[in-house]
Amino acid sequence: MKITKIHHIAVICSDYERSKDFYVRILGLRPISEVYREERKSYKLDLEVNGHYQIELFSFPNPPSRPSYPEAAGLRHLAFEVENMESAVSYLESHQITVEPIRIDELTNKKFTFFADPDGLPIEFYER
After folding, report:
1. 121 close to 14: Cβ distance less than 8 angstroms
2. Which of 46, 83, 103, 111 could cross-link with 32 by S-S, CB 3.0 to 4.6 Å?
3. Residues 87-101: pLDDT tens digits?
4. pTM over 0.70
5. Distance between CA atoms of residues 101 and 79, nearest Å
6. What DSSP string runs through 61-124?
7. What does each C-alpha distance from 122 to 39, 42, 66, 93, 113 come to in angstroms?
8. Looking at the predicted structure, is the pLDDT value of residue 48 above 90?
């Protein structure tokens, strides 16, 4: 067996329109396909990240809250690479998104920071 790449990452949101706005308008991910599945009362929005990876944004009626503090087992965060950290942080803050202070990865000397999506999912920006 040989794994060749990450195919997609699925995110379940509590407010579909709010999360769709965040991932599409604010983060700039490109919608590929959007469907409403009546039998599940659920939207599924496929998003493209710079032509390479795909995020699947799902809505379900009354999803349980994500345990995050203290850290829970499971997916820790979603990370995106950015060209310029200061510019990316400034952009997020201009959209009233709270961003943690920029830190330096002591192993790579690269800049990184964290913020949250509308449901509190931790998202990391990591400088190229």
Report:
1. no
2. 46
3. 999 999 999 999 999
4. yes
5. 16
6. SSPPPPP-SS--SS---EEEEES-HHHHHHHHHHTT---PPPEE-TTT--EEEEEE-TT--EEE
7. 30, 23, 11, 16, 10
8. yes
